User: Fold these one by one.
Assistant:
Number 1:
Amino acid sequence: PAPEYVQAIAPYQAGKPIEELAREFGLDPASIVKLASNENPLGMSPKARDAAVAALADAARYPDSNGYYLKQALAQKYGVPVEWLILGNGSNDVLEIAADAFLAPGVSAVYSQYAFTVYRLATQASGARHIVVPAREYGHDLDAMAAAIADDTRLVFIANPNNPTGTFAPGEAVERALQAIHDAHGTRVVVVLDEAYNEYLPPELRFDSVALVRRFPNLLVSRTLSKAYGLAGLRVGFGIAQPAIIDMLNRVRQPFNVGVPAQAAAIAALADHEFLARSYELNRRGLQQLSEGVAALGLTYVPSYGNFVLVHVGDAPRVNLELLKRGVIVRPVAGDGLPEWLRVSVGLPEENARFLAALREVLG
Ligand code: PMP
């Protein structure tokens, strides 16, 4: 039998395949709009796709365990030595690797109420104790999180921007919390700063988290190519930290955790600045379209800095079911403690419009 702490895990609720939903609701699969997983509605950069396809020729061999070329590209982009980088099978993998390396029964992890589900899952799978800090206006209360650290705490998870709420903590607030944590606990507590949605931030809000990695030896910044870079299905994420942390992470990761086509696509995606700019711009307009659209229906929403919007609909199970009948898939977040809300990913303009029209119909 699995340990009790594993048996106690509430499993991650993944959506059904589109074809399955289409059958269930008697819909044409091609007509279904999926705005449920914070994916890039543009797909991936054609250059990344071409690179992935070309790399299939080498995929009978194991991938490069150290991701030499991808790390070179990342080292250049972020101005750090390759020893400061770890690759993950999505950034989810980086988060789990951090939990594997630093958590165990008898220690604790701190994270915010309404944060990314994987913090809870990874903490629980490691047998560690959870310290869940109440949210402030749906976002992280970073000062309270720093203050909540206990003697047995080894990890703090911060999502910025956060999922599922889309909130953002400015650079000064993050820096203040990091300073407080480092002053009080030194390198005994590792902070994971999960910046999966970083590329969607407007330029005036972006701050240099890599500079913070240089200042704080207990900081691990996590990034992904699943969102703005459009590689969600290929699974590429990475972490940036000082070598002492990276060394510990490398001890517990799978040796071949990022596949051959994924590494090749990631290198091409990082170089396709034009695609990234298009993704950013499409998302900026889509956020505006969705936010204005739900506000016009009289609904409350949390202003978002990601590629999704959290919308208060009241009877979320009913609204979700009615949206499904109309071929629109969004994400219920009851499992995250938000039973009256739905999370809607930004799609193409016409997809956002389909969602808004269906929602208007459902709400009468
Ligand atoms: N962090 C946050 C905050 C996320 O929302 C997600 C994706 N839902 C991830 C990490 C993990 O994404 P991936 O594994 O695809 O990089």
Number 2:
Amino acid sequence: MTLVSIEGNLLLLAQPLLSSCPLALSSGCQNAPPDGSQTNLNRQSFASCLPNGEAEFLCLGLSIKVVGMAPAPPVVLTIAGFDPSSGAGISADIKTIAAHDCYGIACITALTVQSTRGVWQILPMDPKVIAATLDELASDFDIESVHIGMLANEDVVLAVAEFLTRRALPHVVLDPILKSSSGSALLDPGGIRRMVQQLFPVAEVVAPNLDEALALTRLPPAESGESTAQAVDHMREAARHLHAIGAANVVVTGGHLEKAIDLLSFTASRGVEQEVFKAERQKSTSTHGTGCAFSSALACHLAHGRGLPEAVLLSKAYISAAISNAHPLGHGTGPLHHLYRMNQPRRPTKIVSEAEQVHSRN
Ligand code: PXL
């Protein structure tokens, strides 16, 4: 007997053949008569056979396996600046979102002139264009989570805050970007104030790096050469202050420290709980945009329905792998390999092995 697999929309093309077929159902269809007496196959009967995504039929001596389309990916909206070198910002976010089996949609807050060597110019977008873009996207897509990156200035913050407050979208992850790794300011002082006042309350998680956390809470900057234990104490204190100024849940990242440490500080029924995640620090020049990738990955895991501790753990593992798989690109601080998983062999699925059988027998 020959096995034929039909996937997704191909089903429609196969309708004429299948509808004239006497069927013997072997598996996967709860609704069909057990004696295989169903002889006429139409779209409805197919649909009713696919609650678990699969059904198998005998037809003219062929065993036909029907595999339903995979469910639609969660839609993740990223609101961020454009880095033309795609190490950080919106184009890096879209790669990260794709790497996490989500569908990325985007609203650009600012254009930048930059490369791996640094940021040279910033051109904030018109807040009216931002507001219109966000409303258009939100009326068209069911958004499962939102990632917020570079916001540039106060007017942009106000437009984004107005939208998020009105729409009350789920799982808002705020990366409160203040500066580029090369030291350029990516948010003006008025924007910083408004971000705390208006975006902290709508964010499920605020995910600054340690320097941003200290700056936002007006704590003294970390001294160079401090021990891992001292850095963790700093992170704990900064997280407590961030809760005090309105952040429900906080992840303070410290990838630049001696050990790559992240601190999750979240509000549980018993009060604030803190969990430390540690990894070895990698010696690499491919670290541009790690914050963007980490916070976008977090938004994806939340969109998939994972809890915060698991989302942090998985996002951290993703960043480590994206750094260790990165190619040295550009002449400065290069990008991660956001899509490193594309080069990894996929687990062979049943469908592939069945297709191979068809091939070898013909
Ligand atoms: O890595 C922070 C960042 C985020 N977003 C954009 C950037 C940068 C750093 O340069 O340009 C657009």
Number 3:
Amino acid sequence: AAAFTETLVVKETVVVHEDLSESQEKANAAFVILTRNKDLKDLRETLIQLEDRLNRRYHYPYVFLNNEPFSDEFKAKIRNVVSGECEFGLIPTEHWSYPDFINQTRAAEARKDMAERKIIYGGNESYRHMCRYESGFFFRHPLMDKYKWYWRVEPGVKFACDIDYDPFLFMEKNDKKYGFTISIKEYIETIPSLWETTMNYMKENEAKIPEKNLMEFVTNKDGGYNLCHFWSNFEIGSLDFLRSDQYVSYFDYLDRAGGFFYERWGDAPVHSLGVAMFLNKNEVHWFEDIGYFHGPLWNCPKGKANDKCWCPEEESIEIKNKGWSCTLDFVDLPNP
Ligand code: GDP
Ligand code: MN
């Protein structure tokens, strides 16, 4: 009898999740993951969490991208842990190499100099191709053509909270274009001329800039860059926005300026400045309720919302280190 009662009690606390893939409306969306064969173990850990916390109820598909072919082992072992369709894409060489207008000697000298100055990833060549790819090309990979929404995932990130609604549909129904979990300030040494280049772009392309935008989020009192950016290892966003003439013209302008190679411009500040220029606050959403970890930072729900999580709420970066985080400043901005 004791065992029976115990089972009943346990049953009461079990959350029963329906399979929502057939019964409910779905967005035209996919997870997109740029990764390497050697990331297999970390990526499986991440995907098992993402499936457990969300996707086992929705079965959204996955697109894996790589500058080298994925191994058969990688494909099989990924397919084993996910409930959505998987497609594995090779990145075309033109999207992961030097454009002809880049002086490769100057690029190599910049890497050497930044390595000596101990700037994070300063001497790393492939990291620069990665940042340029995530800034300007992943959304133009042919495997992404059929989708309207993407969710970027990286190997090794953690998902701590049960997500009991569809974040893609949330974006669509609320006219959101860009969603983030963590925002922080960038290392200035990686982007010394990004702000000036962006200002020049804006001056030369005034007609492309909407009156209501989010430039306040990235501008300091003196009119310079406050270094705030949305951390792009997590993004839920509109592919139509990234594929727009506006965003692509901004990326092309930056690419020509050479800072992906002569400096070490990250895709996070580039996406963020694009978002700030072209979108307004109502179109950008902080997923406060998504418990998310990318080393070394957490976004973790507070109070009642933490009940369905395993993350420590006091660790959430916007309360733990307000000075480095930009999220509460984002929240305080006026709506358009
Ligand atoms: P960090 O988050 O800035 O420290 O950079 P990561 O090392 O996490 O890289 C960012 C993303 O790009 C991750 O999804 C990586 O798996 C991926 N990535 C980085 N470098 C390469 C590369 O050379 N090839 C491929 N295919 N993916 C890469
Ligand atoms: Mn990462």
